[in-house]
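Q: My labmate handed me this sequence with no annotations at all. I'd like to see what the chain might look like in three dimensions before we decide whether it's worth expressing. Could you predict it?
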Amino acid sequence: MPSIEAVLLDISNMINVKLGSIRPGADITLTKVDFDGVKLELETSSGARRSRPFSEIEAIIRSLNSEKIAHVDTVLGGSGSSRNQPETILANLPYIEYTYIDRKKHLVLRDEPTHE
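A: Here is what I predict for the chain of 116 residues:
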């Protein structure tokens, strides 16, 4: 069960790496992990700059740590189409995968790394 601090440190190792999106055509590049501003800064595949609060990552990690699986839209309270950004960030960590259950996308916490 990774701590939020460990996850954020792992995410900070992905700065300036193009992250393949779960949703086709929605790749992102992390540009900054702002520990003072408690947010992630990123650039979308269309070049738009966005930020995401740490609270989204924290909520998803809490769900993954308790259930080993998380439906991000439910965890984030139906945050809409941009939910793919925290999903994409987390799914690119080596110990988190995604799968479909009842045609809905879910993140899954693994005990061992399954990809780079």
